[in-house]
What we know:
Number of strands: 0
Shape: extended
Number of helices: 5
Oligomer: single chain
Largest sheet: none
Low-confidence stretches: none
Strand content: under 5%
Distance between the termini: 51 Å
Order of helices and strands: HHHHH
Amino acid sequence: MPGLGCGSGGIYPSPTALERRARRINRELARLYPDAHIELNFVSPLELLVAAILSAQTTDRKVNEVTRVLFTRYRTATDYAAAGQAELEKVIAPTRVFPG
Length: 100
């Protein structure tokens, strides 16, 4: 279909335009909420992802308790993939992600 697709003339913004928009939004949020910070403890994007998923089910305090153990045992996505489901369920049980 003419006019559809990425780049100029298309309906989708370019990656550069998306990045500029994201940076503008980030600056505005920082201006509006200068003291905002995340309560979850993490040191990598993978750890943030895992903590954010777990935080949907419980408090950030509980997530930080669980991830202290979790992030020591599993440092990479490969580590998580290699772990047994029962083992992971046991570690994250306090977050109530899995029915008990």
